[in-house]
Design a protein that fits this description.
Beta-Lactamase, Helix Hairpins, nucleotide-binding, 5-stranded mixed beta sheet, 4-stranded antiparallel beta sheet, 58% helix, rod-shaped
Length: 472
């Protein structure tokens, strides 16, 4: 029993079929009960109405002609019929009868006298447990009761008819249950089959197998679920590939500085080197240590942003102050490469709601990127644009530009346009990914416009808090 219950609980086809079959049974039982009640009520009412009409008709005829001839005529009318008539005089003596009477008939005749004396009501209407339906009607002569007409109707035909109806309803019900049960089973299989296929597909996805075919037919909820599974599978496959690529790239990025650290430290420890060589090796170790530290810090920042625990100190800040502070930080490195910074200050003070340190981090990442890719003697332009709702900070360089096919991937983690030049011209490819996330946290967005040989323009779009009428 327990195994059967467990089997039912784990089979959606059976559960759905049983649910539909249960609903069908409820409806069938309700309709059967309605048909049964209507038939019984109609049939019994028809028999009783005919009984009372015949009783009253005989009483009316006898009231007009209460003699032996009329009594004999009434009795002969009911001979061989479904009814039995008994005619009594005022003293309740039998004047005529259409069939032989039994003790049960005599009991009802006594009951007839009692009911007539007390209530003047019908004698018997219980068709289910009594042998007869019995009605009575008085016969009047000269305004006085001269006799009584008592009409009996056997209840056996009524019970037989109702039993026949019950057998018919039961037969129809069983046949319908078998037929409908089979149809519902097929329908539930048809409905559940796509779900079973989807279950198998999701199991394959969980195992890392994404090569499957899931038919998408129609536009109902099941088809929408299949489409969602398709989309989920592609997204998982994409993110799994990204994860694998990310881990591979991280491994490469970590291996490079660690190789330098290990190699140069071994040179210092295992060889007799001059002070100049030792200083040179220590400088390389320091640079690679800083590179490794930046990489780890960037990874840590990305992880905290993804987890939603990256802290922000929100306040109203002057955007020009943040940008000029950043320019002063990168100015020396720009000068060392002979890059000219052309800065166009805004006409009015621009205020935004944000984190001064995080926005400074964004501008440093973008300006460092411009410095990496701008050749010696090039220029970097920094300017503002604004409208009623937002301010746009444009940082344009005169570098080699970015191929159009590469633009959609620039802000992805560890993505670099020129991977072969990463050691000389760039970091690990995390700065722009972090910057894009920080800008999104400020309810803004990052745009990148570029063409090969024409430089690159980064546009940081941020919502305004307010703009002063004049620059202070």
């Amino acid at each position: 029993m327990g195994r059967m219950a467990q089997f039912i609980r784990t089979r959606v086809t059976i559960k759905l079929g049983l649910l539909l079959f249960g609903v069908f049974l409820l409806i069938a039982v309700a309709l059967g009960n309605i048909v049964y009640t209507f038939f019984v009520s109609f049939y019994v009412s028809h028999v009783w109405e005919e009984l009372t009409q015949r009783t009253e008709s005989h009483a009316a005829v006898l009231s007009d002609y209460f003699n032996d001839s009329t009594i004999d005529h009434v009795v002969r009318m009911e001979v061989g019929a479904n009814f039995m008539v008994v005619i009594l005089d005022s003293d309740k003596n039998v004047l005529g009868q259409s069939d032989n009477m039994t003790s049960e008939h005599h009991d009802y005749l006594d009951m007839t006298y009692e009911k007539q004396m007390k209530f003047g009501a019908t004698v018997e209407q219980d068709w289910d447990s009594k042998p007869f339906l019995v009605d009575q009607a008085p016969v009047f002569q000269g305004g006085k009761e001269a006799g009584t007409v008592v009409l009996f109707s056997s209840t056996t035909p009524i019970r037989e008819a109702i039993q026949s109806l019950q057998r018919i309803l039961l037969t129809i019900g069983l046949a319908s249950a078998i037929i409908v049960g089979g149809i519902l089973f097929l329908i539930s299989r048809m409905i559940a089959r796509p779900l079973l296929v989807m279950r198998q597909v999701t199991s394959e996805i969980a195992k890392g197998n994404y090569d499957f075919y899931l038919p998408l037919r129609g536009e109902d909820e099941v088809a929408q679920l299949a489409h969602s599974i398709h989309h989920m599978s592609r997204e998982i496959q994409f993110y799994q590939k990204q994860r694998n690529d990310f881990l591979a790239d991280i491994g490469h990025e970590l291996r490079t500085p660690l190789t330098y650290l290990k190699g140069y430290s071994e040179l210092i420890l295992g060889h007799d080197v001059s002070n100049e060589e030792k200083q040179e090796y220590l400088t390389v170790i320091n640079e690679q240590s800083e590179r490794l530290q930046r990489l780890v810090q960037d990874l840590f920042d990305l992880a905290r942003i993804d987890q939603g625990v990256f802290s922000f100190h929100w306040e109203k800040i002057c955007l020009e102050d943040v940008l000029t502070d950043t320019l002063s930080v990168v100015e020396s490195s720009m000068d060392a490469k002979g890059i000219l910074i052309e800065y166009c200050p805004p006409e009015k003070k621009i205020m935004v709601k944000g984190d001064r340190q995080r926005l400074g981090q964004v501008f440093i990442n973008i300006l460092d990127n411009a410095r990496y890719y701008t050749p010696e003697g090039g220029s970097v332009f920094v300017r503002y644009q604004r409208n009623a709702a937002e301010v746009i900070i444009e940082i344009e360089d005169t570098g080699p530009g970015i191929p159009k096919a590469e633009l959609p991937f620039i802000t992805e983690r560890l993505y670099r346009v020129e991977k072969s030049r990463s050691k000389q011209t760039g970091g690990a490819g995390l700065g722009l990914a972090i910057s894009s996330k920080i800008i999104e946290k400020h309810q803004g967005y990052l745009q990148i416009e570029s063409a090969e040989g024409e430089g690159t323009t980064f546009k940081v779009n941020l919502p305004l808090v307010f703009v002063d009428q004049a620059k202070s």
